[in-house]
């Protein structure tokens, strides 16, 4: 009887912690980022947002690591100043997982009309949405750190910089992170990347590289979501999406991608907060917290 009561109390506590994710607070984090203006590398909005992210994470995390680096753009003949942000919870715990998103925005709206193609995008969904979820998760983890596992929240810079058809110009932050991963003595059981998850019409199919390399983790996350009643996590196959998880997988760092690629405002000036939904952020946030606390 005592054992049954213990598990009932544990389940109730677990459910309460997951419910602590605040949809509206997460959405305000999204709006705040967009208010800085475009966050493409070397821009004023990029610098302001970096300072904001650093200060927010310092409120919640045990340790915050800034990972600055430079990348030379040979085509435009300029040097980019980039920074990954890593917020660590319970860094002493050897068992670890990570959640990741990119925080930069695209410097050109190349899917927009001809007159707008060279204008930086606002990046509400493609840039701010994943970060907003991780910031709110940071607040919940600070309130009640998981007992069995340490968590790192990683924000990659320079994901969306490249020209079309030049993959070597994309995923700059995740490439740098992967290259220096072992120098930081990092080790993770798995990671989950979230990208473009704020769409008000959320539809999350199973991404190809994720299914190929880590089918067990895709199954776990999707089943967790569906058991919570979130059928926005579809069993349909998305296809292969080049994103920040690919350099990680190539380096032997296990990571899957949760992404809604059916977004008509992608890489346009119409990627604004009104196309996003607090409810979508809440779905992703609660599923990720469930995955964390069930470890």
Automatic annotation (TrEMBL):
Keywords in alphabetical order: Acyltransferase, Signal, Transferase
Keyword Transferase among record annotations: yes
Domain Peptidase M28, chain residue ranges per copy: 84-291
Residues making up the signal peptide according to the UniProt record: 1-19
UniProt superkingdom: Bacteria
Cross-referenced InterPro entries: Peptidase_M28, QC/QCL
Family matches, as SUPFAM superfamilies: Zn-dependent exopeptidases
UniProt GO molecular function: glutaminyl-peptide cyclotransferase activity; zinc ion binding
The keyword Signal belongs to this UniProt entry's keyword annotation: yes
Protein name per its UniProtKB record: Peptidase M28
Organism, as annotated: Caldithrix abyssi DSM 13497
């Amino acid at each position: 009887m005592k054992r049954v009561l213990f598990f009932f109390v544990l389940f109730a506590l677990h459910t309460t912690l997951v419910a602590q994710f605040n949809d509206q607070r997460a959405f305000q984090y999204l709006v705040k980022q967009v208010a800085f203006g475009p966050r493409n590398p070397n821009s004023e909005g990029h610098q302001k947002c970096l300072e904001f992210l650093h200060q927010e994470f310092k409120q919640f995390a045990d340790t915050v690591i800034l990972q600055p680096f430079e990348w030379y753009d040979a085509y435009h003949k300029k040097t980019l100043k980039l920074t990954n942000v890593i917020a660590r919870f319970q860094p002493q715990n050897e068992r670890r997982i990570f959640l990741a998103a990119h925080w930069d925005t695209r410097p050109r709206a190349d899917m927009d009309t001809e007159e707008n193609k060279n204008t930086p995008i606002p990046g509400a969904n493609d840039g701010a949405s994943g970060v907003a979820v991780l910031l709110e998760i940071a607040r919940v983890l600070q309130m009640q750190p998981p007992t069995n596992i340490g968590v790192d929240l990683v924000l990659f810079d320079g994901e969306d910089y490249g020209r079309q058809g030049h993959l070597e110009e994309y995923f700059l932050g995740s490439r740098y992170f992967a290259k220096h991963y072992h120098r930081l003595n990092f080790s993770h059981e798995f990671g989950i990347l979230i990208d473009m998850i704020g769409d008000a019409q959320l539809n999350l199919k199973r991404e190809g590289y994720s299914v190929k390399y880590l089918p067990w983790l895709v199954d776990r996350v999707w089943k967790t979501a569906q058991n919570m009643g979130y059928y926005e996590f579809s069993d349909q196959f998305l296809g292969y999406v080049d994103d920040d998880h690919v350099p990680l997988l190539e380096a032997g760092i296990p990571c899957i991608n949760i992404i809604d690629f059916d977004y008509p405002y992608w890489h346009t000036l119409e990627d604004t907060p009104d196309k996003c939904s607090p409810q979508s952020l809440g779905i992703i946030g609660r599923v990720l917290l469930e995955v964390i606390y069930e470890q």
